[in-house]
Amino acid sequence: MNLANRITLARIFLVPIIMVLLLINVDLKPLSFDGSDFSITWNQILAALVFIVAASTDGLDGYIARKNKIVTNLGKLLDPLADKLLVAAVLISLVEMEKLHAWIAIVIISREFAVTGLRQIALLEGTVMAASKWGKWKTAVQITMIIDLLLNNFPFAFLDFPFDQISIYAAALITVYSGIDYFVKNKNLIPLTA
Fold first, then answer.
1. Could you list the residue ranges that cross the membrane (predicted)?
2. Torsion sign across C-alpha atoms 186, 92, 74, 124
3. Cβ within 8 Å of residue 152, ≥6 positions away
4. What is the pTM of this model?
5. Computed over its alpha carbons, how large is the radius of gyration of the chain?
6. DSSP class of residue 192?
7. At residue 37, what are phi and psi to the nearest 5 degrees?
8. In degrees rounded to 5, what are phi and psi of residue 101?
9. Displacement of CA 14 from its chain's centroid (Å)
């Protein structure tokens, strides 16, 4: 259990904390600004901060593992699992909070499962599928969307700019495109006959 794997495990352990913050109603006065319709609960602010910390560990654990040459099979298994758990849990919470349509969450989560399955097939074939540039963009756009939704479109709400809606559809589009990209580039791994 090296440092990189501990960081990955910490990301997994932050998932239920985020969900509790989002889904348990604490009766505190929301933060609001005079002369504005904008308000946000303290739970959402805390959840957003914990999510930012968790999401920022995604690149950190991989960097530490590669730099110190401590890449392990456990890390290869836990890292993508931690990413999927984090994103899926927050997306489902956002659906429950009525901040995200269920079909968007289903599209994003389905793509994650499909690409994870393809990666497992690649591992069985002795191949490691590296993250593509579209996969990295997908992650960045999804994280941006989630943070914006957790913060009720702050600061764009003050400008009457629907960044939250734009980020939702951008995340859905790039998620689908990056999934298609993975399958097209790795079509040789998919058996055409049973």
1. 7-25, 45-65
2. negative
3. 38, 39, 40, 44, 164
4. 0.89
5. 18
6. S
7. -80, -5
8. -70, 140
9. 13
In which band, very low, low, confident or very high, does the pLDDT at 169 lie, cut at 50, 70 and 90?
A: very high
- 32 - beta bridge partners? 39
Beta partners for 40?
Answer: 31
Number of Cβ within a 10 Å radius of residue 193:
3
Q: Which residues contact 141 (CB under 8 A, 6 or more apart)?
A: 167, 170, 171, 174, 175
Confidence of residue 127 (pLDDT cuts 50, 70, 90): confident
The SS3 assignment for 32 reads strand
Owner of token pair 């629907």: 162
β-pair type (31-32, 39-40): antiparallel
The tens digit of pLDDT for each residue in 26-81 reads 777 888 887 788 999 999 999 999 999 999 988 888 888 888 888 877 777 788 88
Instruction: List pLDDT tens digits, range 76-123.
Output: 778 888 989 999 999 999 999 999 999 999 999 999 999 988 888 887
Write down the residue that tokens 């904390």 correspond to: 17
